[in-house]
Design goal:
Residues 25-67 form the TadE-like domain. The chain has 175 residues and is an alpha+beta fold. It has one domain (27-171). It contains four helices and four strands; from the N terminus they run αααβββαβ. Strands 2-1-3-4 form a four-stranded antiparallel β-sheet, with helices on one face. A hairpin with a 3-residue loop joins strand 1 (107-112) and strand 2 (116-120).
Length: 175
């Protein structure tokens, strides 16, 4: 016959309970050490993802602006009394940029066949042939700067801004 030893069962139970009691805060402590690193990496990935999304959105807006430019239209110019083609193209880019246009601080370089770049400034006046004539090849390029939010990532970008350039090249239609 087998005899039971209740005192051994109790002591084993007490020992395992004592081990568990000593580890109650370990998971919380481990999470406290790892959580800041995980949150930092999450913010970093989100910051870079948004910067790439802004780049793609502005690329789309420039492509749509170039498509508008090569057709010779002026219908989008806010000043319809004497419409200017370049203002209509800029307005098309603003419309297609999903509200990002004022946030990226754009500067333009427009090149027509001759290879001579013309820079756009909001206070300058330009001729109606700024985007060339029918059959000319037009390159519309915008330089942009997007502010990075994550502090560690900002140190990798000059001035804390993700600087990028987007461009579209098209041939003017016979307008």
């Amino acid at each position: 016959m087998q005899t039971t030893r209740p005192h051994l069962r109790v002591s084993r139970a007490r020992r395992s309970q004592g081990r568990r009691r000593g580890q109650l805060g370990v998971a919380t402590l481990e999470f406290a050490f790892i959580a800041p690193i995980l949150f930092f990496l999450l913010c970093m990935v989100m910051d870079l993802g948004v910067a790439l999304w802004v780049n793609l959105t502005m690329q789309y807006a420039v492509r749509e602006g170039a498509r508008y430019a090569v057709t010779g239209q002026t219908g989008l110019d806010p000043n319809q009394k004497s419409p200017q083609r370049y203002l209509a193209v800029i307005q098309e880019i603003k419309d297609q940029s999903m509200g990002l246009y004022p946030l990226v601080n754009p500067s333009y370089a427009i090149t027509v066949n001759s290879g001579k770049a013309q820079n756009y400034a909001s206070d300058a006046s330009y001729s109606s042939s700024m985007f060339g004539n029918p059959g000319d090849i037009v390159v519309l390029q915008i330089n942009c700067a997007w502010p990075m939010i994550t502090p560690m990532i900002r140190s990798f970008f000059p001035g804390g801004f993700f600087n990028f350039s987007v461009a579209a090249t098209m041939r003017n239609e016979g307008f």
